[in-house]
TrEMBL record, chain B:
The chain crosses the membrane at residues 62-80, 92-109, 115-138, 150-172, 178-199. This is ER lumen protein-retaining receptor. It comes from Rhodnius prolixus. GO terms for cellular component: endoplasmic reticulum membrane. The lineage of its organism: Eukaryota, Metazoa, Ecdysozoa, Arthropoda, Hexapoda. One of its GO terms (molecular function) is ER retention sequence binding. One of its GO terms (biological process) is protein retention in ER lumen. Belongs to the ERD2 family. It comes from the Eukaryota. Keywords: Endoplasmic reticulum, ER-Golgi transport, Membrane, Protein transport, Receptor, Transmembrane, Transmembrane helix, Transport. It holds the Pfam family ER_lumen_recept. It is a multi-pass membrane protein. It is found in: Endoplasmic reticulum membrane. Its main location: endoplasmic reticulum.
Length: 10, 212
């Protein structure tokens, strides 16, 4: 699971 | 990036452009809720503070800047340049009833108790309900201009398309973010009544008028 703190969306 | 995300972003972009053009061309912000626009400016500001801390892509950076500039540009047009046309008598939704619960919820339910993360979470919660003053205004006046309806349709469609993006990402990338997903569902559901009216009335060339 990817890190939640990495927000790559707008 | 998948097709749903791209179409969602384009729909979002279309919405803010429609709104700016409507105000600019008609020299009027009649029928537009300044309170919703203040909330959207708060949403973009809180969420896009990461512009200075993390780089994702040129696309992300450009879009974030566009949304910030468009949002503050809209506020400028509404509250300064075309202030006289602002219909504040019908724009009476108490935004503290939205902002305060979002602040509390962001402090309680977040992925990480850090300033940037709480601001991001707050922006996600606030975005989901930021349109309520606008919908309240439409229901209060009982109608909306066609161009305002197109704006609302594009804005509502954007998060709806993000829901498909998240379904896709769950299966294709094993990526999901429950906070964004649940808020996105709430956000899209709030538009359902409007979507129904838009499809049954505005698309048939009629003005969006609520039944008396």
């Amino acid at each position: 699971l990817q890190s939640f703190t990495h927000h790559d969306e707008l | 990036m998948n097709i749903f995300r791209l179409l969602g972003d384009l729909s979002h972009l279309l919405a803010v452009i429609i709104l700016l053009l409507k105000i600019w061309k008609t020299r009027s912000c009649a029928g537009i809720s300044g309170r919703s626009q203040i909330l959207f400016a708060a949403v973009y500001t809180a969420r896009y503070l990461d512009l200075v801390t993390s780089y994702i892509s040129a696309y992300n950076t450009v879009m974030k800047i566009v949304f910030l500039v468009a949002s503050y540009g809209t506020l400028y047009l509404m509250f300064l340049k075309f202030k006289a046309t602002y219909d504040h008598n019908h724009d009476t939704f108490r935004i503290e009833f939205l902002v305060l619960p979002c602040v509390i919820l962001a402090l309680l339910i977040n992925h990480d108790f850090s300033a940037l993360e709480i601001l991001w979470t707050f922006s996600i919660y606030l975005e989901s309900v930021a349109i309520l003053p606008q919908l309240f205004m439409v229901s209060k006046t009982g109608e909306a201009e066609s161009i305002t309806s197109h704006y609302l349709f594009a804005l509502g469609t954007y998060r709806g398309l993000y829901l498909f993006n998240w379904i896709y990402r769950y299966y294709a990338e094993d990526h999901y973010d429950l906070i964004a997903i649940i808020a996105g569902i709430v956000q899209t559901v709030l538009y359902c009544d409007f979507f129904y009216l838009y499809i049954t009335k505005v698309l048939k060339g009629k003005k969006l008028q609520l039944p008396a």
